[in-house]
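pls design
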């Protein structure tokens, strides 16, 4: 489709023809050229965003399925809930992804209220920044992990998900200061790329598990004191809460009654 060429040309002809026989000054022509270039740039940005939305919609439409044999590491990842809760739900997220923000604001609170706070589900977060679509997502993931070093991961997680228009480098120390972090230590962690390798590890494991878009979820039985979980259900997209409830209840019901999982309250999320 040649909209990028047709629309600006049409506007240029319209403006030029708006005053028949009138000569256009040099300044007016420069202003028109600038407007045309801005329109072209805007159309390119819109086209890129549409391509991203299409990819995210395809990921969102992924149905729950019995995945191939997937084992995910959960050791060292930020989590909410009891360390040895019966089930573990792992989310691969992107701080610049609008669908991730929607899940965080609308669905995750319901999961936390009904299953995490009641000791049934351990909620783990890992990073999967879609760098080709969201150029600020990787550093945001680093910032969250740097905040984790000061025991403020979830506070930073909330700020970043709620402020997706403020994920540039200048905004990160503002977020850190608002959370009362040691700003010098935070900035040194971020500028030095201290957590970059960990973010790359998350991406690599997500790709290995078949993650193509965000948010992506993996549900499995918790293996007490083990660094991994064996996935039994995989889900993709900003799914409504009933979708998660059905998957969680189904897996809880399938558990064979046995000895207690020795659930112990976890320490502060990290």
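designed seq:
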């Amino acid at each position: 489709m040649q909209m990028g060429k047709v629309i600006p040309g049409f506007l240029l002809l319209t403006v030029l023809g708006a005053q028949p026989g009138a000569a256009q000054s040099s300044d007016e022509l420069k202003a028109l050229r600038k407007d045309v270039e801005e329109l072209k740039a805007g159309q390119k940005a819109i086209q890129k965003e549409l391509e991203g939305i299409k990819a995210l919609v395809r990921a969102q439409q992924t149905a729950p399925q019995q995945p191939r044999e997937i084992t995910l590491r959960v050791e060292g990842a930020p989590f909410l809930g009891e360390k040895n809760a019966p089930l573990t739900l792992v989310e691969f997220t992107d701080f610049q992804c609008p669908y991730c923000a929607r899940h965080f604001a609308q669905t995750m609170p319901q999961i936390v209220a009904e299953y995490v706070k009641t000791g049934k589900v351990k909620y783990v977060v890992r990073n999967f920044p879609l760098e080709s679509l969201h150029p600020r997502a990787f550093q945001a993931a680093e910032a969250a992990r740097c905040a984790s070093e000061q025991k403020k991961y979830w506070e930073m997680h909330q700020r970043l998900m709620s402020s997706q228009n403020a994920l540039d480098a200048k905004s990160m120390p503002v977020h850190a200061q608002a959370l009362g972090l040691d700003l010098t230590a935070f900035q040194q962690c971020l500028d030095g790329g201290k957590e970059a390798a960990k973010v790359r590890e998350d991406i690599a494991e997500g790709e290995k598990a078949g993650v193509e878009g965000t948010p992506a979820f993996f549900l499995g039985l918790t293996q007490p004191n083990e660094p991994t979980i064996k996935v039994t259900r995989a889900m993709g997209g900003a799914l409504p809460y009933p979708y998660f409830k059905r998957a969680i209840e189904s897996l809880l019901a399938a558990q064979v009654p046995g000895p207690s999982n020795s659930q112990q309250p976890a320490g502060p999320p990290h």
